[in-house]
Design goal:
Strand 1 and strand 2 form a beta hairpin. The chain is α/β, with parallel strands linked by helices. The chain has ten helices and twelve strands. The relative contact order is 0.14. The protein has one domain: Aldolase class I (TIM Barrel, Alpha-Beta Barrel), CATH 3.20.20. The strands form four sheets. A five-stranded mixed β-sheet has the order 1-2-5-6-7. It has a three-stranded parallel β-sheet with strand order 8-9-10, covered by helices on one side. A two-stranded parallel ribbon has the order 3-4. It is 33% helix and 18% strand.
Length: 320
Amino acid sequence: MPQSSSKYVFGPVPSRRLGRSLGVDLIPPKTCTLDCVYCQIGRTTEKSIERREFVPLEEVAAEIARVLAGGVRPDYITLAGSGEPTLYSRLGELIDRIHSLTDVPVDVLTNGTLLFDPRVRDEVARADLIVPSLDAGDAATFERINRPAPAIGFDQYIDGLREFCRQHGSKVWLEVFIVQGINDSDEAVDRIAAIANDLGVARIQLNTAVRPPAEPDVQAVTPQRLAEIADRFEPRAEVVADFPEKEYTGQFQGGVEAVLETLRRRPCTLDDLAAGLDMHRPEIAKVLEKLLRAGRIAGEQRQGRLYYLAVREKPAEKRT
């Protein structure tokens, strides 16, 4: 099904962890409780902890149903997108609605900062898989790498994460994002591991800044260093692998708008787009060339790969 009419659903996009992931965007860009230095969709423009129904639940559910009816079969339906999904005040209702539409599992990618709220814990727990973040083992590093909203304290955040994992750890994959020069020292890693090892989660996964980050000076650590860091967790952490190569059937004809909507949420390589949208590489290459000529996307080299990302549109000037 072509995605030209999609406002909230994007992809499928290739995920290192989840295979082909159909994204659902519930939050305006870029509204979040944090302003992480490594964020792949840029700096936070609205730092907040206020939960709201940013988009109409009925419209989101109807759009998901239309996309699935069009033949898209993802491995997961992922609630993430342009901001922190737990800020969506009807998150639990939406998860229930998706479960009524399909047997495709629902996952929530969250920074975990609102899990101190029992209502948020209850809503998030309705998902089949929860992937929260833990990038710091102390308040100073938390402030440096995650740059939280003033109302978010480190101890409060960790207490909420612990309580959620105490109840639902068996369906939690914990992501630890490592940035060179910030949290990659043995001491910094050991502080993170001291917290992570006691959470009782199903998996601990290590990630780094492979895709273009919010801050240009943010650097990824090497695969060798990630492997060393993995050994400091008990049980050993996983180093998140790249999306596996596959045969492209060309069954999903998303076209220009599907590519653009995907790049608005996440920088991708040509192969990422081909795998996620199930289109042939030459077709994707033609679309990318068209968007580059129009100035709607840009290319950026990162870790030896060429990533494409959407150019943010400037707001229209108000006439006086």
